[in-house]
Amino acid sequence: MINKKSFASIALSLATGALSLPAMAGSMTIDGNFSDWGIQNNGTVAGWTPNSGITYVVEDQSNANSGYLSPGWGGQAYDAEAMYLSWYTRADGQTYLAIGMITGHDPNTVNGANSYGRGDFAIDFGRDGTWDFGVLTADRTAGLHQGDVVSTSNSNWATGLWSSPGVYDPANSSYVTSVTGGTDVGNANLVISSAFGNMGTLGGNHWFYELEIPVAAFGQYWGANGPTEAFDLQWTMLCANDLITLDPVAYVSEPGSLALVLGALGLGGLVRRRKSRN
Questions:
Q1: How far is it, in rounded angstroms, from Cα 4 to Cα 28?
Q2: How far apart, in whole angstroms, are the C-alpha atoms of residue 3 and residue 5?
Q3: Predicted structure pTM score
Q4: What gap in Å lies between CA 211 and CA 50, rounded to an integer?
Q5: Measured between alpha carbons, how far is 191 from 189 in angstroms, rounded to an integer?
Q6: What are 64-99's pLDDT values in tens digits?
Q7: Cβ–Cβ contacts within 10 Å for residue 188, how many?
Q8: Every domain of the chain and the residues it spans
Q9: Where is the signal peptide (predicted)?
Q10: Among 126, 117, 101, 247, which Cα is nearest to 178's?
Q11: Which residues 6+ apart lie within 8 Å of 3 measured at CB?
């Protein structure tokens, strides 16, 4: 049996997690330049670190490793190296989700023998394995074009070459790569930089993808305080040789949902007496 003290502790943990919201950075200029993210092209490990308030992950390949990345191979030319995320409200009153991504994969790579082009950004709200939205980095069909935000199910995605790390099995791959269908629900502002060097342990050319999405496109998944569910953000190229995934924030409750949690456990007064935290 859980005693009252333990029960209260669990409830407070849930409530605190629900209220947890990272400080967001200022708005970005979507121009393919990452200086306003705080990223520095200075040839050091510290150069990957963005400004405070930006959620990020860095997966810079640190050795040749026979070209293995995960789940496939390809070396620097297929290396997805860093992803960044923030959101903010502009003067127009609209809130936007901003994404930055650095890769060693040339966005101009064409599909051919042992050659695979760029993939789309995939978003899974609820982290339940269903990819709810795709943001297109290239024209995919006659009606779905670069910059479109598309509501999807998993059947609306092409998949890569690997069924698990190192296992070549295109017929059974679950690694989503590019959008093949779905419903167009909005438009993102997307800019891809020209090539730049002096970044990453192994050097070589890199490219920066920068995009800004009006969160109204996400419908019920985004409320006044931010995302209404935790979500995964992923990008890879069409072979899925290297995936990069960012898990931005914990679940952010709407005020009504939080009241239900506190009311059901009878802890409203206890929470009010707690000192506020940053």
A1: 47
A2: 6
A3: 0.83
A4: 16
A5: 7
A6: 677 899 999 999 999 999 999 999 999 989 999 999
A7: 22
A8: 35-107+115-273
A9: 1-25
A10: 117
A11: none
